[in-house]
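Consider the tokenized backbone below.
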């Protein structure tokens, strides 16, 4: 691209105008210094170095310049024919070479996109069936796994259920010292997941902590899974006078899904719809009646 610019434009002012016409700002122009005292190639190098050092790496300006060069039709006869400072055949060869490089790049990007889509499709697909997941869940209820391992097993079941419904899922991770039990993308929105398997109903403290995690995220929304339900008043304390950003799900809701009465997506849809339209964050997924 550098050589192409130098073979198409002779006056330094024209080179700078080319930059300005392709979204380089006045501050970008000032950053290259007193261009009138610089060699032509130094002006281009200085601008390219400046743009590359920006946080966005000058991607927009570089793409604009590239498209302008690929579609170039104007060859100033004064510099190409009268003064012979520039050679039209060389300029055209440079544009042709740039087009070849662009085609190679486009092909490479297309292949990378296809490979990424293939990997994403593989990641979304689940290798297990609904009966398999039900059997794993029942074994957890029967106490075959205990302690923290039981919570991790629940997270895996939720991920597999999401994959069975072709939903995008993110595995558990830590961010800024917070443990996130994963997330799921449903109906265009990302929901952070909290999976609790405790011997008693989830208390206000755990719910408040999760609400704090949600508040710190852009358009934060959450799905709180508590296998043994929620303590009395926890729902009202989270809803009263506050923006609703969390939906409650318990073990009975998962049983409904694992037995095939509702799909995981259908269960989420009913829960989220009740929260959005009625302000109810804890309902029976079958009857739509409040549980507390």
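A designed sequence for it:
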């Amino acid at each position: 691209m550098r050589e192409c610019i130098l073979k198409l434009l002779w006056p330094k002012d024209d080179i700078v105008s080319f930059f300005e016409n392709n979204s380089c700002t006045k501050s970008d122009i000032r950053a290259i210094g007193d261009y009138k005292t610089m060699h032509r190639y130094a002006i281009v190098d200085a601008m390219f170095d400046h743009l590359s050092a920006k946080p966005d790496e000058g991607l927009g300006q570089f793409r604009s310049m590239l498209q302008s060069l690929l579609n170039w039709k104007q060859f100033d006869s004064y510099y190409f024919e009268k003064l012979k400072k520039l050679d039209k055949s060389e300029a055209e060869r440079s544009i042709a070479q740039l087009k070849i490089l662009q085609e190679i790049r486009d092909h490479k990007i297309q292949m990378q996109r296809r490979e990424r889509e293939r990997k994403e499709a593989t990641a979304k697909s689940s290798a297990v069936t609904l009966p398999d997941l039900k059997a794993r869940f029942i074994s957890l209820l029967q106490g075959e796994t205990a302690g923290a391992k039981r919570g991790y097993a629940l997270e895996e079941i939720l991920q597999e259920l999401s994959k069975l419904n072709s939903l995008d899922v993110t595995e558990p991770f830590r961010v800024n010292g917070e443990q996130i039990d994963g997330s799921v993308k449903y109906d265009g929105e990302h929901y952070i997941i909290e999976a609790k398997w405790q011997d008693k109903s989830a208390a206000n403290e755990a719910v408040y902590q999760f609400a704090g995690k949600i508040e710190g995220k852009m358009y934060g929304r959450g799905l709180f899974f508590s296998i043994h339900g929620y303590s009395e008043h926890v729902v009202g304390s989270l809803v009263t006078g506050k923006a609703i950003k969390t939906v409650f799900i318990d073990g009975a809701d998962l049983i409904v899904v694992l037995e095939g009465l509702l799909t995981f997506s259908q269960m989420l849809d009913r829960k989220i719809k009740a929260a959005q339209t009625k302000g109810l964050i804890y309902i029976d997924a079958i009857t739509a009646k409040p549980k507390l």
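The chain has a mean pLDDT of 87.
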